[in-house]
Design brief:
mainly alpha, flat, 0% strand, 453 residues
Length: 453
């Protein structure tokens, strides 16, 4: 193995990718992961194997798996090794292995990882000290809040959050629009809530909403979620039907539904759709609600004005809702009813989606007959057809189809084999890392060529 190969794996999910590794873990193939890590230099396999070996307290073997990666200078392997040592009780050795020379000047990414290691070692104050110089960055602040949950240091975290929340609270009035700690207010409320101070969290964030003392829309969403979690229906009604309805009304509607007042939720959503200057933003929560209530015809009626939009996301989401609810014929009818321009623009999506709906409905022969009518260059047609064959019990036919298409990636064939109890065959059939890199370069070049005007 070498750094170049390891960086390629990490950058492009090359080699045996996480999706295949996760399946191998689920099926209990730890020894195959160890073998792939040792013989092929597969980093994702090494990392997962080490985790699974630690779960059964085989720490020395876990270290043996990752140390060769560390020896070539692969920094992520040093962090995994430190985590193994920590679990094995070798705390000082673990910390010294990855301790930054100066937490004040080290990168915030290194500090975040080192702080997490310190937290696991029970050195909470030291971990907080490592992160403190970087608390101006929102993601570091969020990481601090997340990793200290349940450690009994909420008051200490609130002291750190207070000046940052105040800075965010005043940013709009001072016309500072680009501060990185704009999420501090919602984090402050989050810590207050988990500390059992829900009334205070509601009061502080509610006052900020009423006065307009916040910078980012996520703060409104966080307040709505806080109210919904804690059953504060009256405050949620005020928020959801007021100036922030475009963000908060869906939360109020869902809270009404959860309280057994679904019809009230339908009424209020319909009222906003009828009266708002941008009614389409309220259609989706109403469509979801009506679908959950089994009122499919009404949901379709609500969505009709946006189903032929150039943006296919809302239609795709609704088709997904229908399929999950078992309304396959309704989903197919929605696809069939699109206008000619939409069908022309979204032909690939419609074709792929129709195959998927038919497969989910168990109408396999119909799906295969439909697939035979589609353009052979339809994106992932082979994979979709193989999925239909597999679901219908024609496993060998599906495998033969996958292997016959050079555009199907090797790991996808391997994933199929693992699903059918042929894990050793799957890994043995994987090309070398060098061959996989060459194949990726070929695919990337083809994509670039296709993208040129």
């Amino acid at each position: 193995m070498n750094i170049d190969d390891l960086e390629w794996q990490a950058r492009s999910l090359g080699g045996i990718p996480p999706a295949l590794v996760n399946l191998l873990v689920e099926r209990g193939h730890v020894e195959l992961l160890v073998q792939a890590a040792t013989e092929r230099g597969e980093w994702f396999c090494a990392r997962a194997a080490a985790r699974e070996l630690c779960a059964v307290e085989d720490f020395e073997r876990a270290l043996c798996v990752v140390e060769p990666f560390a020896e070539v200078g692969w920094q992520p392997a040093h962090w995994v090794a430190a985590g193994i040592m920590l679990q094995a009780g070798r705390v000082e050795e673990a910390l010294e292995r990855v301790r930054p020379d100066d937490a004040g000047t080290a990168s915030e990414y290194v500090c975040r990882d080192f702080a997490e290691l310190l937290m696991k070692a029970g050195r909470v104050d030291e971990a907080i000290g490592v992160l403190t110089p970087h608390l101006g960055r929102s993601w570091i602040l969020s990481a601090l809040v997340e990793m200290t949950e349940g450690l009994g240091c909420d008051e200490q975290i609130l002291e750190l959050l207070a000046p940052l929340a105040e800075r965010a609270r005043n940013a709009r009035g001072e016309e500072r629009w680009n501060i990185d700690d704009g999420f501090a207010q919602e984090l402050q409320a989050q810590v207050l809530e988990r500390a059992g101070r829900v009334d205070e969290a509601v009061q502080v964030l509610g006052s900020d909403m009423a006065a307009g003392h916040f910078l980012v829309q996520n703060t409104v969403t966080a307040y709505a979620e806080l109210l919904q979690r804690n059953g504060r229906l009256e405050e949620l009604r005020t928020l959801g039907t007021g100036a922030h309805a475009h963000l908060a009304l869906p939360y109020y509607a869902r809270a009404l539904e959860d309280c057994g007042r679904a019809e009230e939720a339908v009424v209020v959503l319909r009222r906003f759709i009828a009266a708002d200057d941008s009614p389409d933003r309220f259609r989706w929560p109403l469509m979801e609600l009506l679908t959950r209530q089994g009122r499919i015809a009404e949901a379709v009626e609500v969505g009709q004005p946006v189903f032929d939009d150039h943006d296919v996301c809302r239609l795709a989401g609704f088709v997904d809702l229908l399929v999950k609810a078992g309304h396959f014929d309704d989903a197919l009818a929605i696809l069939d009813e699109r206008n000619a321009l939409f069908i022309e623009e979204q032909s690939s999506w419609i074709q792929s989606t129709r195959m998927w709906v038919l497969g989910e409905a168990g109408r396999f022969e119909e799906a295969l007959s439909y697939a035979a009518t589609l353009p052979t260059d339809l994106y992932r047609l082979t994979l979709s057809t193989a999925w239909i064959l597999e679901r219908s019990g024609r496993v060998e036919d599906a495998l033969e189809l996958l292997r016959s298409d050079a555009e199907v990636r090797a790991w996808e064939v391997a994933h199929f084999l693992v699903r059918h109890g042929r894990a050793a065959e799957a890994i043995a059939g994987m090309p070398t890392l060098a061959d996989l890199r060459t194949d990726r370069q070929r695919r990337d070049a083809a994509l670039r060529s296709h993208a040129r005007p």
